[in-house]
């Protein structure tokens, strides 16, 4: 289930608040985190550290993409089909 619009340009006005709240309560990531802590398989601090590692990986990927040169337009159709 998607909790937000498709992009920053999508205000996500087609679904009502009740529908979003219904599904938000069933978020599998939050439910799994609760399971891990309830069964003493992870602490909140460990889960927070994992979240920070994930965010750092995302931040690095975004920085790499933003600092990379724009692709050459002649490569637009490359890698669409497998070469024989």
Features:
single chain; 84 residues; mainly alpha; 3 helices
What does this entry look like structurally?
The protein has 84 residues and is an all-alpha fold. It has a domain at 27-62. Helices cover 51% and strands 0% of the residues. The protein contains three helices and no strands. The chain has helices spanning 17-24, 28-38, 44-67. The longest helix is centred in the middle third of the chain and has 24 residues, at 44-67. The two termini are 39 Å apart. The model has no long low-confidence stretch (mean pLDDT 91).
Number of helices: 3
Mean pLDDT: 91
Order of helices and strands: HHH
Instruction: State the helicity in percent bands.
Output: 40-55%
* Uncertain residue segments: none
Shape: extended
Distance between the termini: 39 Å
Radius of gyration: 20 Å
Number of strands: 0
Q: Strand count, sense and closure of the main sheet?
A: none
Structural classification: mainly alpha
Strand content: under 5%
């Amino acid at each position: 289930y998607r909790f937000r619009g498709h992009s920053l340009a999508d205000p996500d006005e087609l679904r009502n608040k009740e529908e979003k709240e219904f599904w938000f309560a069933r978020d599998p990531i939050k439910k799994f985190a609760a399971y891990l802590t309830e069964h003493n398989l992870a602490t909140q601090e460990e889960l927070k550290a994992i979240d920070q590692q994930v965010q750092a990986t995302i931040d690095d990927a975004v920085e790499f993409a933003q600092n990379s040169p724009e692709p050459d337009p002649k490569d637009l159709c490359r890698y669409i089909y497998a070469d024989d």
